[in-house]
Amino acid sequence: MDHRKPAKVFCLTLGCSKNKVDSERIISALSLNGFEPVSEAEDADAAIVNTCGFIRSAVEENIGAILDLLELKEKGSLKIVGVVGCLVARYGGELKRSIPEVDFWAGCEDIEPILASLTREEPGVHRKAGDGRALSPSDFPHVRYLKISEGCSRACSFCTIPAIRGAMRSRPIRGLVEEASELVRGGASEICLVAQDLTAYGEDMGRKGALIELLDALESSLPKDVWLRLLYLQPSGVDRALLERVAGGRQVLPYLDIPIQHSVSRILELMNRGSGEGMPGIFETARSIRHDFALRTTCMVGFPGETRRDFDSLLKFIEYVQFDRVGAFAFSPEEGTAAAGLTPQVAGRTRNSRLGRLMSLQEGISQARNSLFVGRELDVIIDETRPDGSAGSRSFREAPEVDGMVELASAPPGTKPGDKLRAVIDEALEHDLEASFVGAAGSA
């Protein structure tokens, strides 16, 4: 082994699923250049932290992780620690001054500089940077993320993404289909389409309806048993055509993650997300097309100027729609965003109290939605099997990592992650479902 070149590399991914795709691209390039990815920092010669810089709490968590790895370096366990990703794009200059022990800093798409830093060779040395695809195995190779675009052009007043990632750049359909096919050959049985905003896909190329074109291309190219799931859709970009395409898809799951952030027009306009006019109709139409359409959203509480009446209106909207899942967070005044300077700011205690009330309401709604499926048979995908014969799985209603589970009391011998089975739902809990195996997937 070249003494200048660490053979084993640990990559720690923090933040969202888009970051996970970036890490997989980095690992793919490292593998092409003779590095061995490892799952534990203690087993590595070098460590890379792929960071998130979206909100203040994430920044603090990321810095803590960097310091933990630097402690391993100080003890001699690691030779190199590098930091890449959103945190570098947002606070790179400041971080370089305050944490000089880090060996290199890079953007998440800067594969060549990362390789140069790990090999400690001069720039310009011939290296295999790959083709930018995320083809390396993940911890759960049966679930993979396909990032269809990079960046965002929406300019929401509270969001740092455009400053960090730049304007939206869509990837060509042909390349996405090729990458998805390779992911399937690598073991993927569920592919989640991700971007900062899926509904904006193709707008930068002047192509209206490009997301539906992409779904058509993927369904016509991939094996029929591969699931496709859509995550992160801007409400203003969701129309009846998209809802019908998703509900009627052969492989596209009837599940949509549509972050509303709020329901009050005045607050939405302050967020620079439009007035929200027609937003209730999105969800009414989805459930009229298919009554069990799985709907997930994200809400923000405590945005500057949010009154108690505004918050009560948001609660009523959530109760009216009956979302299957809700993720929520309290507003954080992020440096460099327009919303950070808005007044009046809502007190931190009030923000946290509202967050608790919203999530308490949603727990009851989630359990009620889950209860509608008791006694029903659903196809599920296995995520994990256990020594006692039980298994953790998900149906079309549960996205990986962010939603609940369908817990199987027992699975057939030889069942492995990625397999699809048929289960009957026995009991509904707040977040999870309990079920029993009944047969092969699609046997109803």
Quick structural overview:
The chain is an alpha/beta fold and 444 residues long. It has helices spanning 17-32, 56-74, 86-98, 111-119, 161-165, 173-185, 210-221, 240-247, 265-270, 279-289, 308-321, 348-371; strands at residues 8-13, 36-38, 46-51, 80-85, 104-106, 143-147, 149-150, 169-170, 190-194, 227-230, 252-257, 294-301, 325-330, 377-385, 391-394, 406-408, 420-428, 433-440. Strand 4 (80-85), helix 3 and strand 5 form a beta-alpha-beta unit.
* DSSP strand content: 15-25%
Helix content: 25-40%
How are strands sequenced across the largest beta sheet?
A: 6-9-10-11-12-13
- Name the overall outline: globular
Radius of gyration (CA) equals: 23 Å
**Most strands sheet:** 6 strands, parallel
Number of strands: 18
Order of helices and strands: EHEEHEHEHEEHEHEHEHEHHEHEHEEEEE
Output the number of helix runs: 12
Task: Classify the secondary structure makeup into a structural class.
Answer: alpha/beta
Mean pLDDT: 89
Low-confidence stretches: 123-127
Distance between the termini: 56 Å
3D structure, described in words:
The chain is an alpha/beta fold. It is 34% helix and 21% strand. It contains 12 helices and 18 strands. The protein has helices at 17-32, 56-74, 86-98, 111-119, 161-165, 173-185, 210-221, 240-247, 265-270, 279-289, 308-321, 348-371; strands at residues 8-13, 36-38, 46-51, 80-85, 104-106, 143-147, 149-150, 169-170, 190-194, 227-230, 252-257, 294-301, 325-330, 377-385, 391-394, 406-408, 420-428, 433-440. Strand 9, helix 7 and strand 10 (227-230) form a beta-alpha-beta unit. The longest helix is centred in the last third of the chain and has 24 residues, at 348-371. The radius of gyration is 23 Å and the shape is globular. Residues 123-127 have low confidence and may be disordered.
